[in-house]
Amino acid sequence: MIEMQDVYKTYSNGVTAASGLTVKIDQGEFVYVVGPSGAGKSTFIKLMYREEKATKGMITVNGINLSTLKNSKVPLLRRNIGVVFQDFKLLPNITVYENVAFALEVIEEQPAAIKKKVMETLDLVGLKHKARMLPTELSGGEQQRVAIARSIVNSPKVVIADEPTGNLDPDTSWEIMNILAEINLRGTTIVMATHNKEVVNTITHRVIAIEGGKIVRDVQKGDYGYES
Ligand code: ADP
Ligand code: ADP
């Protein structure tokens, strides 16, 4: 499903942020990616959806070899990968509905099919009643729920989340985790970089720890393993 073999990433400034990553993540797994700031967690994740290109090594996602994938085919890859960010990255000037519909409209679905999928997905995240609002009219937790709806509306096989609870208070963070759990129960792989010790130690899943661009720990039902 997601596989890396001896993957390296050196940025143009000479920093090596991935240094021999080898890992296999199966369909349906829930994986936390932990480690200190600057360890290479974001890089690890960005390599999976070809936001960054590996300098060396092999990456396959959903059977697609990212090393040889043409830039023009990257949008095709992304249809099967939902991405969620710490700062939500919603389009501020269009409604909640339009933010979620956007991903479907670009793949030329029929209007009725779009409407059905968007409303079902907003319902799943508990925001059907706010479809007409603008992102700026919502709380942070609600904005993140919209971002999650946007990420899953195409029914991707994988959702990649980079610190999805990083800007949220504890109660709201638990809500977001419940939604991710629900998505995972439906068979979607979740890869989530996080500093949320409380979450990782409470809702236990596989934990991959990265330090200095290397995987230093990879355990099923692991714990956070750092002080904070
Ligand atoms: P983390 O997500 O664990 O904080 P990152 O993957 O963001 O780690 O960063 C790993 C290292 O790579 C850091 O030293 C960071 O400064 C560097 N880095 C990240 N992105 C870039 C970039 N676009 N250009 C140059 N260096 C980068
Ligand atoms: P939550 O229920 O996620 O904790 P809040 O308590 O922050 O959300 O917000 C309660 C309600 O107020 C939400 O339904 C949200 O739509 C609305 N709201 C929050 N922040 C704003 C804002 N900046 N502008 C307009 N409405 C807001």
Automatic annotation (TrEMBL):
This is Cell division ATP-binding protein FtsE. GO terms for molecular function: ATP binding; ATP hydrolysis activity; transmembrane transporter activity. Part of the ABC transporter FtsEX involved in cellular division. Keywords: ATP-binding, Cell cycle, Cell division, Cell membrane, Membrane, Nucleotide-binding, Transport. It is found in: Cell membrane. It is a peripheral membrane protein. The lineage of its organism: Bacteria, Bacillati, Bacillota, Bacilli, Bacillales. It comes from the Bacteria. InterPro entries: AAA+_ATPase, ABC_transporter-like_ATP-bd, ABC_transporter-like_CS, ABC_transpr_LolD-like, Cell_div_FtsE, P-loop_NTPase. One of its GO terms (cellular component) is plasma membrane. Its main location: membrane.
